[in-house]
Amino acid sequence: MYRSNKPIHLSPYDHPDIYPGPRPATSFVFYKGVAHKLEEDHTSIEESMIHISETNHMYGSLVTDSSEKQSLRDFLSKVNETPIEERIPVIAYGSNVCLAQLVYKSSLNKNVSDLYICFRATIKDTDVIYGAFLAPYGSLPAIIGPVDGAEAEVWVTLLTREQVELMNRTEGGYKLRAHHGGKVLMTTEEQLQTTYAYYYPKALFLEGQYYRFNDIPGNSPLTAVWQADMLNTLREICGYEGTREEFIHLLRWDSSFRHSVKYKLDDHSKIFNHPDWEESQSLLSIREIRQNKK
User: Fold this and answer.
1) Structural domains of the chain, count
2) Burial of 56 (0-12, 13-18, 19+ CB in 10 A)
3) Looking at residue 101, what is its pLDDT?
4) Which regions of the chain does DSSP assign to beta strands (E)?
5) What is the end-to-end Cα distance of the chain in Å, rounded?
6) I want to staple 217 with a disulfide (CB 3.0 to 4.6 A). Which of 57, 69, 153, 209 is the partner?
C-alpha cells in the first residue's frame, strides 16, 4: 500500500493508492515533462520569476539549482505559448497537480499544449473531501465541499481553452462552476476575482461526517484519511473476502463489480450545495476577468 511513501513517477493510473498523487511544495510551470519553479514573492502573475531547469528530471528546478531566471511573461513569449491574459484560471485540487498525472493527460492529445502553469493558493470555507463515486482507475476521487472555517491548499492552474477542453474530457461527471467570493487566495500580489473549479456535489459520508485527504495541507475540523485506508474501508463496506489487490483489480477492470460498488457508495453518500460555487454559462479569460474588475 502507498500512504506517505508515494513515488513521484507514479500517477493514480498506475495504482489507485497514489491518488491524489505527490504534488510540488511550491508554484511551478510544467513543460515538456519538466517542472520549473515559480517564485512566490507576491508579484504580479506575469512578472513572477521562473527558474529554468538545467536538467530533464521531472521535478527539474524544484529540486536542483538553476542559474537562469526569466519572468513568466518572457518565458511564454520565448517558447511561443499562450500569454497569461488569454488563459482561464481553473482550480486544481486532486490529481491535476500531480506531475505524473499531467504527463499522462498530456499524452492523450499531442495537439494540445503540454505547458501547465500552476500557482499555489489557499481556499477558505472549503475542504478537499472524498467523493462517493469511483474514478476509472479505482480511486475515490476528490471533490470540493463546504466546510465552514476550513482552509485547504489548492492550485490555480492557468489553462488554454484547448487544455480546458482536454481536462473536461478526463473529468466525467464533474461540472465547471465559478467562484467570485474572494476566498481563493493566490501567492501572487494580484488576486483573480473569478476562478473556476470542477464541481461534483455528492460526498462520501461515513459515521456522520465527510473525510478529507491526508495528502493535502490545510486546517480543517474533518478527519484526514489516506486513499489506501479509504479503499480498505470500501472493501469492508462491500464485504469483499478476497485479497486487497484482487479487490482493486476488480474495481479497475470488472464493470459489473464496479456497478455493484456504486450502489454501496450510494448508500454512504450525501448530496450538498456549496454556496460559494455558482453555475456558469461561460468561461472568462484572465483579460476579461481583469476588465470586469475595473
Assistant:
1) 1
2) exposed
3) 95
4) 28-31, 34-38, 49-51, 69-71, 88-92, 116-130, 142-159, 175-179, 184-186, 195-199, 202-204, 211-213, 218-219, 223-225, 269-271, 278-279
5) 51
6) 153
CA atoms of 248 and 225, how far apart (whole Å): 18
Please give the backbone phi and psi of residue 23, each rounded to the nearest 5 degrees, phi first: -130, 150
What pLDDT shows up at residue 294? Answer: 62
pLDDT at site 66 = 87
- DSSP class of residue 131? B
Quick check: pTM over 0.90? Answer: yes
Residue 226, domain CATH: 3.10.490.10
Host domain of residue 230: 16-274
Contact 131, 144 (CB under 8 A): no
d(CA 231, CA 240): 12
Q: Is residue 50 part of a domain?
A: yes
Predicted pLDDT at 43? 79
pLDDT at 95: 96
Rounded Cα gap, residues 53 and 282, in angstroms: 36
Cell numbers at residue 126, please? 472549503
What confidence score (pLDDT) does residue 41 get?
81
Q: How many whole angstroms separate alpha carbon 38 and alpha carbon 7?
A: 23
HSE on the CB side for 263, CA within 13 Å?
6
Q: Which residues contact 245 (CB under 8 A, 6 or more apart)?
A: none
* CA 118 to centroid of chain Cα atoms: 10
Cα–Cα distance for residue pair 178/198, rounded to 1 Å: 9
- Distance between CA atoms of residues 115 and 34, nearest Å: 10
Residue ranges in the chain modelled with pLDDT below 50: none
Q: How far apart are CA 278 and CA 254, in angstroms?
A: 36
Residue 213 domain-assigned (yes or no):
yes
